[in-house]
Design a protein that fits this description.
16 helices, mainly alpha, 71% helix
């Protein structure tokens, strides 16, 4: 039993490192390669006889929608392949949560993300043609070892979240933490990603909120959390007239870097296949009907909808989108319960990840693709284990 547990920890640790690197979409790594790498990790875990958790209902229903969408898609084989790519991170997340304690996961994730950021910065300084964006509009912005600067920005967000969670139990912040935070801030500014800046600030505010909640009586946390949520919603409403000014400070305008035209086209395309969508992964190819509609609206051939909810709706329709939103809502509610009952490293990490995914998907495609989907599944799997141990909450994910 000891050897099996040790093997599980080793394979699980390898899975964490490889998944964080691969699902962040490095340069020259295709979707097929990502699927092969993930499948290899799953097969390795099966070969080593690792512990596999009970499947989580809602995310597997969503994955089922992705597979079933092949029935009405014009590219059935492509849909099946990309649906399998959606299933693999969910399996890996369960394996990792079952074999690697959360505290160990944080340490491994922290070291991995730090390495990625350092390598990206070193590459930018030594070989700028690889690590810096070369397009005329965004020339010189940091993309690191990834295909796009927004991917680099997202990795920095995750690095900040993990760093904050690791420092939860420290009575005073170490110099090392300040130094790494400075590195992350400088790298973030270099990416030129306004969305990443907003999400990092959001994460820091959430960290401060949970820190404050942890210092008050547990009986008062629920009411204070609801009050803080209402206050944040009120502040957001008050800030609506100031949106143009806020965007101006971030170097953006009301088109959200020409995203509005893309969103308008995506909504038009969704209306043509409202309930069932076009099939998973069958919307942005050069011959896909949805891509044609979106491109006519935006004025150029698009490679992203820049909205995770619209992307999901286009692929699996309103029915699949409702399952996806339900999954997000359940994970968020369970995470908030964890914050109220036992605020700590896992609670703050999970809350930051979920909120970043929910907010970030209004301008990017993260929560149901690549590293965002992998992390969302990890939050769900670790959360399910935590609640099972505490035996405070019933029900199933």
């Amino acid at each position: 039993m000891g050897e099996r547990r040790q093997a599980g920890a080793v394979v699980g640790s390898v899975a964490i490192v490889v998944s964080l690197v691969v699902y962040a979409r490095p340069q020259e790594v295709s979707g097929q390669v990502i699927l092969i790498v993930g499948s290899t990790l799953v097969l390795l875990s099966l070969w080593r006889g690792l512990t596999h958790p009970r499947p989580l209902l809602i995310p597997w229903v969503f994955v089922g929608f992705a597979f079933i969408s092949a029935l009405w898609s014009d590219h059935s084989w492509t849909v099946l392949t990309r649906a399998a790519a959606l299933a693999v991170p969910l399996i890996l997340a369960g394996i990792i949560a079952s074999n690697v304690p959360f505290e160990r996961f944080l340490v491994i994730a922290d070291r991995t993300l730090k390495t990625i950021v350092v390598v990206s910065l070193a590459t930018a300084l030594l070989v700028p043609t690889i690590a810096l964006t070369q397009s005329a509009v965004l020339y010189g912005t940091l993309r690191g070892v990834f295909v796009h600067r927004n991917h680099m920005g997202y990795v920095i967000i995750l690095a900040v979240i993990v760093l904050l969670a690791l420092n939860w139990n420290l009575r005073k912040v170490r110099f090392r933490t300040f130094a790494w935070m400075a590195v992350y801030v400088l790298a973030l500014i270099w990416t030129g990603s306004a969305g990443a800046v907003v999400l990092v600030l959001t994460s820091i505010c959430l960290y401060g909120l949970v820190r404050w909640l942890a210092s008050v009586r547990s009986a008062d946390r629920g009411l204070l959390l609801v009050s803080a949520t209402c206050l944040a919603a009120f502040a957001a409403l008050v800030a609506v007239p100031l949106v143009p000014n806020i965007l101006g400070l971030l170097g953006r305008d009301l088109t959200f870097t020409n995203r509005v035209g893309i969103w308008r086209g995506a909504i038009q395309a969704w209306q043509e296949h409202f309930w069932l969508g076009y099939g998973w992964g069958s919307i942005l190819g050069s011959e896909d009907d949805a891509a044609s509609v979106i491109s006519r609206s935006s004025g150029w051939m698009v490679t992203s909808t820049h909205n995770g909810y619209l992307s999901t709706a286009l692929q699996v329709g309103a029915l699949g989108l409702s399952v996806a939103v339900l999954f997000l809502a359940v994970v968020l509610v369970r995470t908030l319960k964890m914050v109220v009952v036992s605020p700590g490293p896992q609670a703050i990490w999970a809350l930051q990840v979920v909120v970043v995914l929910i907010i970030g998907d209004f301008t990017e495609t993260r929560a149901f693709a690549n590293i965002g989907w992998f992390l969302l599944c990890l939050v769900a799997c670790y959360g399910a284990q935590s609640m099972a141990r505490s035996d405070r909450f019933g029900g199933s994910w």
